[in-house]
């Protein structure tokens, strides 16, 4: 069996046996030709002397090195935040370090600049395929899917008329960076490559991408095919939230075995040096390489240490510095930030026994609070920043909970915590801005009749309230009765005086 290194220069796949009908001399000539072709391809790829610049002109190693040094001086936006851990200088044109769980940005350099993504485009291609397909489906290869790839494009040598499973396609795309496989997956998923491009742009917009436009499924050079480091991180965040895609993207070598619909036996080797271990780094979860003459080296990588998953994107760098920039940024992230559980630090939103609304089985005051802070809510916290230094913002506009509390440091989002209806077996938290009136009026989105939960009133407080109301009512009744008695007695005295005057009037002549 033959082993192939696949990146932008892998273009050959051939059978392990030539067949009994082939003349020995012809087999020798064939072997020599193929060896020279593969060797020439490898030399072209590995040579650092000639790359296609964006202008189309060749650049010398000295010019490329000068470009890297110039890019090191570009400003890092996160370094301008007062009190934020200072990030390193790197030679990439743009770079971002983002937390997968919260979306918090730890490091930002030109993250909205529109650049060419090259084969890192295939993260979105595989995401759409996984979301809309079945791993066991057979994906056929059309003539257009195979032959629309230029001769110098990355390929694993699939032929028109062949077919492999969708799962094998994803390995071919992520491990072998196969352009013709990306085309076939696009046709399988959307019916045509053009329709798939529409899906790509729609999905990117749904993920929040604002500086992206895609024209193909594989990342081949096109002036209208671009994205930004931030947008690429959003796509990668969604990608690495999927366990299957993460596993495929973290594969160093994949074996294609012959089948009735694909007769070749060959291996694919990943060119991501952090995945293969060529450049060792702890906790790598997967990634994708990308290169064209215009994009230069582009790299997306996911890593997890101490329960914190980070995504690093570097764009427009020279080989092999894209890998070292990535390792440097991961070192920065894990050394200067931690993922903390909000309930371990939060003190402003604790429960006090002052709300009538409770949940539980004890109607005599031992029931638990109606609202609680989600115990899984976590945020990113810089190691040199105290939790009480953070700013908070409360939002009731959320579908996932009753309220959502956003945490920020000098305007930089660190994550959020959810406040929801409590479960009987968990500790509760009551947000101080949520009043019983807001709950009753529906301002918080609470629906009292939820599933089989029973809502109780605190009877102790209720009895005291009823007694107080009874006392007030009794006083009012007494006052009203006193008022009436006073009013009636006055009227009787008036009537007596009038009768007395009438008697004196009738008998007045007796006294004249």
Question: Descriptors for this entry?
Answer:
disordered C terminus; single chain; four-stranded antiparallel β-sheet; 512 residues; elongated
Architecture overview:
- It contains 13 helices and 19 strands.
- 35% of the residues lie in helices and 20% in strands.
- Strands 3-2-10-9-8 form a five-stranded antiparallel β-sheet, with helices on both faces. Strands 14-18-17-16 form a four-stranded antiparallel β-sheet, with no helix packed on it.
- Mean pLDDT is 80; it is low at 1-56, 351-359, 428-432, 442-457 and 507-512.
- It is of the alpha+beta class and 512 residues long.
Number of strands: 19
Sheet with the most strands, sense and barrel status: 5 strands, antiparallel
Discrete helix count: 13
Strand order in the sheet with the most strands = 3-2-10-9-8
Helical fraction:
25-40%
Structural class: alpha+beta
Overall outline: elongated
Stretches where pLDDT is under 50 for at least 5 consecutive residues are 1-56, 351-359, 428-432, 442-457, 507-512
Radius of gyration, CA atoms, in whole angstroms: 37 Å
Strand content: 15-25%
**Averaged pLDDT:** 80
Taking the alpha carbons of the first and last residues, their distance comes to 153 Å
What is the topology?
Layout: E1 2-5, H1 24-46, H2 61-72, E2 94-99, E3 105-109, H3 122-132, E4 138-140, H4 143-147, E5 163-165, H5 166-174, H6 179-190, H7 193-206, H8 229-239, H9 243-249, E6 253-256, E7 266-269, H10 273-276, E8 284-292, E9 296-305, E10 308-317, H11 321-336, E11 337-341, E12 357-359, E13 368-369, E14 371-373, E15 378-382, E16 391-395, E17 403-409, E18 412-421, H12 436-441, E19 455-457, H13 459-506
Parallel strand pairs: 1-7
Antiparallel strand pairs: 2-3, 2-10, 4-5, 6-7, 8-9, 9-10, 11-15, 12-13, 12-19, 14-18, 16-17, 17-18
